[in-house]
Design brief:
This protein is of the alpha+beta class. It has 8 helices and 9 strands.
Amino acid sequence: MKKSFVCEAYEWEFARMFSSVSGSSKGYRNMPYVGCIVAPMIWLVLFGLYVLLTALLPEQKQQLAWLKDSAIGVGVLVGIIIFIRSAIISSKSVRIPQPTDDIPWVMTNEQGIWINTFNQEEAAQLPFFRWEDIQSVHVDITRELRLYIGGREYPSRREQMIAAYNAKYTAHQEQVLTCYNDRLTLILNKDRPLKRAIIQMPKSWLRQGQFVELLQNIQQQTKKTAAVYDASAEPYVRQWIANNRE
């Protein structure tokens, strides 16, 4: 049976800023990364074809040199085109909510879990992880995504995002922080480091029991016990656990 975990629009927009999904089994979010895979694959195919043909036709080696010379360029070009096209499709899929909207942020059923990064009602458009593909479950404080996935720091971009958020939701002002110790993030890891879902938990879920229910559901379905992400998060996660036992 399908279960939806709902939050208000202001919580969804904040959660989306601190969430990321890669390596999903379904959904548009998985598509841009195809470009990153295609680029080296094209290079390998063209270079492999060059090696094979020169072995079979050694007298044509000079005429076949273009395969080797163009392999990298063609692979990179095609990969970039696929990445950009898929990223544009993903961005167009996002439906901006009204401030009064209630949005299903996470949905589960017997097969797996959806993350509604697009504010769409059609499940086929959403990133989806099958339960059997999830290898570990972690709970962390909410951190800037760069601390998980790497990359350069862009403080001005983060400030612009929070400023736009605060302008839209004047009753729910947020600070620009690298870590939010009063909030939690759920991390679902697949079999490779870059294949995971980083899902920021709405603050109301921590008080009203939705996160407890979701975490229990995930642990039951995956047969994995959730662990604290690292030592810096442990006191805050333990405090949340203590509060929910009271």
